[in-house]
Design a protein that fits this description.
Elements lengths: L3 H18 L7 H18 L27 H11 L5 H4 L2
Helix pairs in contact: 2-3
């Protein structure tokens, strides 16, 4: 019983902090749709998820079928991502 008391007190403090923070704000619908489109564009150009299986080429060179463990630098990834975000507003280029 003694060991569960600190856990219960910690949970009560956490619950009180969550209640004090208020509800999570929602984005306006156009902004939410644009952000979702930006994520899909990044996934496509970086070759994430199932896009390569659907025939969408990636702008990153990961080594091909024989060597799929080629290192990709952060700079190469950023350059590739920047090409996907060209059509999006300025907030996207700061990511």
């Amino acid at each position: 019983m003694m060991t569960s008391m600190p856990v219960m007190i910690a949970w009560m403090l956490w619950a009180a902090a969550q209640a004090a923070a208020g509800p999570v704000a929602k984005l306006p619908v156009p902004v939410a749709k644009e952000m979702a489109a930006a994520v899909v564009a990044l996934n496509r150009v970086l070759g994430l998820e199932s896009w390569p299986a659907q025939g969408v080429p990636s702008c990153l060179d990961r080594g091909g079928l024989e060597a799929t463990a080629k290192d990709v630098s952060a700079e190469d990834t950023k350059k590739c991502a920047d090409t996907a975000l060209d059509g999006f507003p300025s907030w996207a280029s700061r990511m």
